[in-house]
């Protein structure tokens, strides 16, 4: 044991003074007088315990002496060296990816990582902590925090995001936040490996905690569906990533209806393909393997079916060039009238022409805006790279004039100066493409790019009808709903309401757990699927290791002084002073 302020030992003079005061205190001789005889019996009982009498006579002295000694020791600040974490600034990186959900013994790797992080936080001795969540977009959860309660609270609140960890960017961020040799980096993952980036972190002391054990994983690598003849065919790829033979069941279903079942036997590290024919048409299909391995996130896959060749309904008078263009790409055309369609349930794409959107049916639409208010085009045509214009060249297209744009929240994908020529968006919750010029005012239908544009538009609309698309875990995406209902309710495949979104005020955000979901807006139901990242379909484990050990001390633990004893010494001294006062008070009262 050592002392920070040994000069305060000089206060021992006061302890000696107290002892001297007791030596020179006035002494009294005990004598028996006649009045005391009345209390002889009481005195005999009291004198039956002579040690108690002596203690009572000297108790104040010992309490005062001990309180002074403890106060003096508190002032000299005794301390001793103990093991503590290396670094004045600890940067902790946590991997929240799907593979961290793999379980062993009833605990996931992520839960075990949190326990180790809390244990690490319990060893802090005044160090600052920065906590980084290494998701697809790195997030700093703590920045140089030194409050142990805040650190533990933040660690307790961590959750899996199921996205693939972006460890390289997290390491670059950690390197920019480090303060040189006084910084220690701790990485909690399951498969972090040595690479050049780690070794180049300016000599930063780094400890990699790879959590977990072999999950004996069997993975549903891929699953997809497609139209084949009069039915739907599907294909799935299943891989045994374990070192032993396994047996598992493979199932394809829609909601609670089982559409296909098969038992599989796979050898160690074997991959097999399952082909399925003549599935009934359903909005979506869910495939799963029934083995109870340690990693369930890759035991599921979904495929949402959309009609690859929906019918095309031409409403009213449509320019013959548009009709011929759709016939060229092989679409099935039906001439219809808006009034005759009321009460009929249709599926397909509408092609219409006019100056207002008010009488259009609730179907995906290509609308040729032929309003009478036109503007002569003087500037060159320009546009963004967009799926609608893939392989469709506009450099040689001539457009003499454009109609005034229709009111609405549209995305302009082709323009002449500030004049929008082609726009797209959502009308009553359904996709729409608006062409703001008459086909008679352009030579575009005579060029090869026109049918290509119609083909791209046809497929884009057919894919957008009731299918929002595939999303990564927790992905945020802007969805143009136009003047449609912005209030959306998100349901899982068990019809459980997960949360609500207002797309007039916020972006669409997908759930984090892979699966098939429904977004309900009014009477419209949209399907979408959250996919597991391909890089997360393996639950391998890496070995823990340490880098740059020579940057300072050899071990992750170093010797630091523990100065906490002075507080307890002072606390006990004040308690003794309180007891001494009570003894003194009772003595005078008696």
UniProtKB/TrEMBL annotation:
Gene3D superfamilies: von Willebrand factor, type A domain. Keywords: Membrane, Transmembrane, Transmembrane helix. The keyword Membrane applies. InterPro entries: Aerotolerance_reg_N, VWF_A, vWFA_dom_sf. Residues 90-190 form the VWFA domain. The chain crosses the membrane at residues 6-24, 59-80, 565-584. Pfam families: BatA, VWA_2. Residues 1-78 form the Aerotolerance regulator N-terminal domain. PANTHER family: BLL2463 PROTEIN. This is von Willebrand factor type A domain-containing protein. It comes from Cytobacillus firmus.
């Amino acid at each position: 044991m050592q002392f920070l302020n040994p000069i305060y030992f000089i206060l021992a003079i006061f302890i000696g003074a107290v002892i001297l005061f007791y030596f020179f205190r006035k002494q009294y001789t005990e004598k028996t007088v006649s009045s005391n005889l009345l209390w002889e019996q009481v005195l005999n009982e009291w004198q039956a315990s002579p040690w108690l009498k002596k203690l009572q006579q000297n108790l104040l002295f010992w309490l005062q002496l001990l309180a002074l000694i403890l106060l003096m020791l508190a002032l000299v600040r005794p301390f001793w060296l103990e093991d503590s974490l290396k670094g004045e600034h600890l940067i902790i990186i946590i991997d929240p990816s799907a593979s961290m959900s793999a379980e062993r013994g009833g605990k996931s790797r992520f839960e075990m990582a949190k326990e180790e992080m809390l244990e690490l936080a319990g060893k802090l001795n005044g160090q600052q902590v920065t906590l980084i969540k290494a998701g697809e977009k790195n997030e700093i959860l703590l920045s140089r925090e030194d409050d142990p309660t805040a650190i533990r609270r933040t660690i307790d609140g961590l959750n899996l995001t199921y996205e693939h960890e972006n460890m390289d960017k997290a390491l670059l961020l950690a390197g920019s936040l480090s303060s040189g040799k006084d910084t220690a980096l701790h990485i909690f993952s399951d498969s972090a490996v040595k690479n050049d980036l780690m070794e180049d972190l300016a000599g930063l002391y780094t400890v990699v905690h790879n959590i977990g054990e072999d999950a004996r994983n069997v993975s549903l690598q891929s699953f997809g569906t497609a139209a084949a003849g009069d039915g739907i065919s599907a294909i799935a790829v299943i891989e045994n990533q374990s070192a032993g033979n396994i047996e598992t069941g493979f199932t394809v279903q829609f909601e609670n209806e089982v559409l296909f079942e098969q038992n599989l036997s796979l050898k160690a590290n074997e991959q097999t393909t399952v082909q399925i024919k003549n599935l009934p048409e359903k909005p979506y299909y869910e495939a799963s393997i029934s083995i109870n391995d340690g990693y369930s996130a890759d035991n599921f896959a979904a495929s949402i079916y959309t009609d690859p060749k929906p019918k095309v309904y031409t409403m009213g008078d449509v320019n013959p060039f548009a009709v011929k263009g759709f016939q060229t790409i092989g679409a099935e055309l039906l001439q219809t009238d808006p009034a005759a369609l009321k009460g009929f349930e249709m599926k397909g794409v509408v092609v219409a022409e006019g100056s207002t959107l008010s009488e259009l049916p609730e179907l995906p639409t290509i609308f040729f805006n032929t309003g009478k208010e036109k503007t002569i085009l003087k500037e060159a045509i320009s546009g963004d790279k967009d799926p609608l214009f893939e392989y469709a060249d506009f450099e040689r297209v001539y457009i003499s004039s454009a109609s005034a744009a229709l009111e609405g929240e549209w995305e302009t994908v082709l323009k002449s100066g500030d004049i929008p020529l082609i726009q797209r968006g959502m009308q009553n919750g359904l996709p729409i493409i608006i062409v703001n010029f008459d086909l008679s005012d352009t030579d575009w239908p005579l060029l090869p790019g026109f049918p290509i544009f119609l083909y791209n538009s046809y497929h884009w609309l057919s894919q957008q009808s009731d299918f929002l698309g595939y999303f990564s875990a927790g992905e945020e995406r802007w969805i143009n709903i136009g003047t449609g209902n912005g209030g959306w309710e998100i349901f899982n495949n068990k019809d459980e309401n997960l949360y609500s979104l207002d797309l007039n005020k916020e972006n669409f955000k997908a759930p984090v757990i892979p699966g098939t979901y429904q977004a309900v807006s009014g009477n419209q139901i949209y399907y979408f699927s959250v996919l597991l990242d391909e890089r997360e379909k393996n639950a391998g484990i890496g070995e823990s290791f340490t880098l740059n050990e020579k940057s300072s001390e050899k071990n992750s633990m170093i010797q630091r002084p523990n100065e906490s004893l002075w507080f307890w010494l002072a606390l006990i001294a004040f308690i003794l002073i309180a007891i001494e006062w009570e003894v003194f008070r009772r003595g005078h009262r008696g």
